[in-house]
Design brief:
Strand content: 5-15%
Number of helices: 7
Structural class: alpha+beta
Radius of gyration: 20 Å
Distance between the termini: 33 Å
Helix content: 25-40%
């Protein structure tokens, strides 16, 4: 139902989208094709943008200041968006079938710290499963109140659930969008290690 249809996907290289001929808005989209390049090296991404090889980009937040200072004509758009910074559980599998374990992991994740480390906006905050821009979504403040960052309380929940010494688990992540997701998964890995949950990233 969207304006573009995925035509081709070369993993870790490029995704090609073409105009949806049955799009419900007459006369749109205006573009016949959109190519999304997957560039894992931030320096190469910046260079491609500066030399006009890219029409738009989502910069690594560590490179944001450099991008703005060296590209005064760049048009910057910032908005609250739907990110994929999520920890999803297989709730049919032990120990994640226990709500106390899932809540403990959520409480051990320093969402605010990760946001300030990886994102340029000083007001960035991870909220709930979906943000307040969508109907029923929680604001960051509501999300923090519902599941506060509290490693000590997380340890108590694990003990109540029968894991006073923690446990080991595997977490699946991806480098398909560059190193940022892996770096953030490593952040979560360290947060969980602090409450005795030893995570292996795959």
């Amino acid at each position: 139902t969207g304006p573009f249809v995925l035509q081709k996907w070369d993993r870790k290289v490029q995704r090609t989208y073409v105009k949806n001929p049955t799009y419900f808005v007459a006369g749109k989209p205006h573009l016949d094709q959109v190519n999304v390049l997957i560039m894992s090296d931030p320096a190469s991404l910046l260079a491609a943008f500066r030399t006009g090889q890219l029409d738009a980009m989502a910069p690594n937040d560590q490179n944001y200041a450099s991008l703005i200072s060296t590209n005064p004509d760049a048009v910057v758009r910032e908005q609250l968006g739907l990110t994929v910074n999520q920890i999803m559980f297989n709730a049919a599998k032990e120990p994640f079938d226990d709500y106390r374990v899932r809540k403990a992991i959520a409480m051990a994740w320093d969402r605010e710290g990760m946001g300030k480390t990886f994102y340029a906006s000083s007001t960035f905050a991870l909220s709930g499963p979906f943000p307040s821009t969508l109907f029923g979504g929680m604001t960051p403040e509501e999300a923090q109140k519902a599941i506060p960052y509290d490693p000590e309380a997380a340890k108590k929940l694990l003990a109540e659930a029968g894991f006073p010494n923690g446990f080991s688990a595997e977490m699946l992540t991806t480098d398909a969008y560059g190193p940022a997701f892996v770096n953030q998964a490593q952040w979560v890995q360290q947060d969980l290690k602090d409450i005795g949950v030893n995570v292996t990233l795959k």
